[in-house]
């Protein structure tokens, strides 16, 4: 199991060392009960290892690995199929003493506290993953005991989360935090994920692995901010567009004080046209209570836009378009990549929800205005 977990963890230590400064390192020690006669310092590149330094393991278990590595980074000490993840810096001089029967569980790293701490956390990861594996098998074999099995698994999970948080607290700004980061779900616990990612940023200067993981964090952050751009409670971004007469301009903020359905649509959009009767019915039902619609067309042909408004009886006055199609400035501002796209905005100009159509839109308006 250790072997498998280390292999999985190594996927997060994929490195690209082009343009990095070489470092000198020295890794010595003793492995008894060894299953191989060769030790190596390697890096994992997704599908394969690249070996940087190799040395024989003496009959008494002693070994000495001395040489150059591409950069300060994460490396793998390899003894046959067994591996220990290491953090190696310029002029690292560390020792590894272990029992070859299980070099992770019965091993110690001297001269690199961060590597030793990382090894201990990986063992905690291994224990938790083993618990999950056994629980899944137990449920498969005895589905009638699912509740009890899941309760026991929850206890194991709580124990692991406590160990992880203690590990994070006890290793501030350390590259050893990288495996902990891989166990945090950014969708469920963004604050914790971001805090650890930021601590890792400058923890190992020149490390391609740290840079790659930080770049991934920046990418995730961008996606999250984009998703939250129109989150409920956010102020709806204001914009100005030309109305149907081709001269008058209006702003979204001109409608503040009303509940506004901002509706991105087009005459050529089948789903939009299909939804229009529902929007018309809701407008007629709630307009006296302060509800209105602002329609932003992604048309390019003004005559087709006008014809669709008349044919679908879109009786509200707030029709705007710059006739730029998908290059519509308001649509770009709202990051619209598909229509129909709606944003329901309250009287204070704050977003209530997005992508409301049909029964969902009717239900929300009923909550706001009553029957």
What this model shows, in words?
This protein has 371 residues and is an alpha+beta fold. The protein has three domains: 2-116, Sandwich (Immunoglobulin-like); 124-228, no CATH class; 240-369, 3-Layer(aba) Sandwich (Glutaredoxin). It contains ten helices and 15 strands. It has a five-stranded mixed β-sheet with strand order 13-12-11-14-15, with helices on one face. Strands 4-1-7-8 form a four-stranded mixed β-sheet. A four-stranded antiparallel β-sheet has the order 3-2-5-6. A hairpin with a 7-residue loop joins strand 7 (92-99) and strand 8 (107-110). The radius of gyration is 30 Å and the shape is elongated. It starts with a helix and ends with a helix.
Mean pLDDT: 92
- CATH architecture group name of the largest domain: 3-Layer(aba) Sandwich
For the sheet with most strands, the description reads: 5 strands, mixed
Molecular shape: elongated
The level-1 CATH class of the largest domain: Alpha Beta
From the alpha-carbon coordinates, what is the Rg to the nearest angstrom? 30 Å
Structural class: alpha+beta
Q: How many individual helices?
A: 10
Widest sheet: strand ordering: 13-12-11-14-15
Q: Percentage of helical residues?
A: 25-40%
């Amino acid at each position: 199991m250790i072997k498998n977990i280390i292999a999985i963890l190594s996927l997060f230590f994929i490195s690209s060392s082009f343009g990095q400064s070489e470092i000198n390192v020295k890794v010595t020690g003793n492995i008894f009960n060894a299953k191989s006669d060769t030790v190596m310092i390697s890096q994992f590149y997704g599908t394969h290892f690249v070996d940087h330094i190799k040395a024989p393991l003496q009959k008494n278990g002693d070994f000495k690995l001395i040489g150059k590595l591409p950069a300060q980074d994460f490396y793998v000490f390899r003894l046959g199929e067994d591996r220990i993840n290491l953090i190696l810096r310029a002029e690292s001089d560390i020792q590894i003493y272990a029992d070859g029967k299980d070099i992770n569980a019965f091993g110690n790293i001297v001269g690199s506290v961060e590597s030793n701490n990382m090894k201990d956390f990986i063992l905690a990861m291994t224990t938790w993953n083993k618990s999950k594996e056994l629980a899944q098998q137990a449920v498969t074999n005895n589905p009638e005991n699912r509740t009890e099995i899941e309760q026991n698994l929850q206890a194991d999970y709580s124990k692991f989360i406590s160990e992880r948080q203690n590990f994070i607290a006890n290793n501030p700004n350390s590259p050893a935090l990288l495996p902990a980061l891989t166990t945090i779900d950014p969708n469920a616990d963004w604050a914790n994920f971001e805090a650890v990612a930021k601590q890792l940023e400058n923890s190992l200067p020149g490390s391609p692995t740290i840079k790659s993981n930080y770049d991934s964090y920046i990418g995730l952050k961008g996606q999250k901010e984009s998703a939250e751009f129109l989150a409920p409670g956010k102020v709806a971004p204001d914009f100005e567009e030309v109305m149907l007469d081709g001269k008058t301009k209006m702003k979204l903020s001109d409608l503040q004080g009303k509940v506004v359905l901002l509706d991105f649509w087009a005459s050529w959009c089948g789903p939009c046209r299909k939804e229009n009767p529902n929007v018309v019915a809701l407008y007629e039902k709630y307009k006296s209570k302060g509800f209105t619609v602002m329609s932003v067309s992604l048309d390019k042909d003004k005559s087709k836009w006008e014809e669709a408004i008349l044919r679908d009886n879109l009786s509200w006055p707030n029709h705007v378009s710059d006739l730029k199609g998908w290059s519509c400035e308001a649509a770009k501002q709202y990051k619209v990549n598909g229509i129909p796209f709606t944003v329901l905005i309250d009287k204070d100009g704050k977003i209530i929800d997005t992508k409301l159509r049909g029964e969902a839109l009717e239900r929300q308006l009923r909550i706001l205005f009553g029957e």
